[in-house]
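Why does residue order matter? Because the sequence determines the fold. Keep that principle in mind as you read this record.
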Amino acid sequence: MKTIVLCLEENLLDLDLLKYKFDEHFGDTQSLSKWKDNLAQMSKHLDLKERSTQFRTLFNAVLQMTSEDLGIPLIAYEKDLLYTRATQLPLRKNMIQILLRLKDEGHTIKIISSLDINTVRSKISKANAQSLISSVVDPTALSLGDIKNSVHNTGAIQSIYLNLMDQVNHQTHQEKLVDQIAS
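Structure:
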């Protein structure tokens, strides 16, 4: 059994819901994809604690990189607005199914976030995912043992997530076909 430590902002929130805001600010339909690519690149150079405790700084730095890549300046107010919207997002679609599968496979799931613990617990509660999460941990209190004995590398989590997302999407597609045939 492995412990999987997930950063709420980076791994669980449905950042794709920011697309219309990114499109509006940058006037480029690929701006969110560019931002997410930049986030993945920059995250590789930070450890789990740094990514989670300083997510606002990371978010804004990646936003600045994207702004420079696109040649469209952003003022501080716009950065704050986008960050605030990001932290208000719900969990990704199908995240409950993915967390359920991880738990069924024997994984223990811990959530860390730069947001206060009560806000994180509220988001998890709204998604009815309390029973799937073993704990919400303040990233500054994350022990070295938690880090060493967990899957927290963004690439590894993405791999687990994408594999499970493919399975969930395939299952959902099959269920829709069955429903169509039945009706």
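The chain has a mean pLDDT of 79.
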